[in-house]
Amino acid sequence: MNDLIASNINSTQGDYPIFVGNNFKKDLAQYIKNKYVPKKIFIISDSKVFASEAINLINELENFDITCESLSIDINETKKNLETCTYIYDWLLSAGSERNSILISIGGGVTTDLVGFVASSWLRGLNVIHFPTSLAAMVDASIGGKTGVNFKHGKNLIGAFKQPLFIAMDTKSLDTLKERELNSGWAEAIKHAFLFDKELLNTFQMQSEDIISKKNPVFTEIIKRSVQIKAEIVSKDEFEKGSERIKLNFGHTIGHSLEGLTKYGKLLHGEAVSIGMVVAANISKNLKLISTETKNEIVSTLNQYGLPTNLTSGVDINDLFNNTKNDKKVKNGIINWVLLKDIGSPIIKDDVPDSIVIDSIREAI
Description:
- The protein is of the alpha/beta class.
- It folds into two domains: 2-174, Rossmann fold (3-Layer(aba) Sandwich); 179-363, Dehydroquinate synthase-like, alpha domain (Up-down Bundle).
- Helix content is 46%, strand content 18%.
- The protein has 14 helices and eleven strands.
- It has helices spanning 25-36, 50-63, 82-95, 109-121, 135-141, 179-196, 198-206, 208-212, 218-236, 252-261, 269-286, 292-304, 317-323, 354-363; strands at 5-9, 16-21, 40-46, 67-73, 102-107, 127-132, 146-151, 154-161, 167-170, 337-342, 345-349.
- A four-stranded parallel beta sheet has the order 4-3-5-6, with helices on both faces. A three-stranded mixed beta sheet has the order 1-2-9, with helices on one face. A two-stranded antiparallel ribbon has the order 7-8.
- Helix 1 packs across helix 2 (50-63), helix 6 runs antiparallel to helix 7 and helix 11 (269-286) runs antiparallel to helix 12.
- The radius of gyration is 20 Å and the shape is globular.
């Protein structure tokens, strides 16, 4: 498995690897057997990937004499809440989980967030392994130990930091991913390029056809590079106490507000973040941090990957703006906006006038 390590994360809860490869479930099962010697593992999967992913992993684990208790449930943003956690807690209790038990989450970013939170809270903390099956989860949601569930007042307002034992990313899982969901994942990977890596952005722009068609080696390599960027930032700022990890929230202030306003049903997370990045680029332009040309380059790149860059006319600008006040990054009533001075050069500003934000939202309609 060492040849599959894309990056390592250093954390106060223990250092751990991130594996990236293609079709390595057998190797993964053997690694778990040799490394942890578990007699039983508890698998929680999104029902949408149970047949394609969970059953195969269960079979490989059982071939190594590991008993698997599995729960397959419908997991989406509308069910990412304490009610679903309670349902999983009841199942873990009835299935015989103990303090040293290992959970495996199989699914997208909502699954890793939800199961990660369950692992952080049940019996004051269980071990967890993430097996993300969507691109968005691979390049973003599963990395870094952030877990959480939605509350009626906003997204991810209830949560904890819970680092996994490791993360295993099998790119074969993306073979059957719907185009819209794959595009949504590219939003987070492209975000890393906007923030930290001009060369990566150039690859996204110049090789978009090969990347979109999942042509190797560029497809796997660009995922690995995005994973490395996220891992490097998390290792520097595990609990988002400094100024590094908050930069990863580029596009998320408006994105989260938009998701909440549309009841988590109209837009995928990456689609909302894409629109949020355009608004953040508009703010950056209107503050004269970046040129109109740079802002247009951001919009153009997102469009290359089939991502939305405009708000629909049905969204109320004032409601969208007011909803940003519920964002987790608000401190003393002030929003910390992640903006750009240039591609690869993010900046955090807490003094953006409300009028600039509202005008920047209006520009995106």
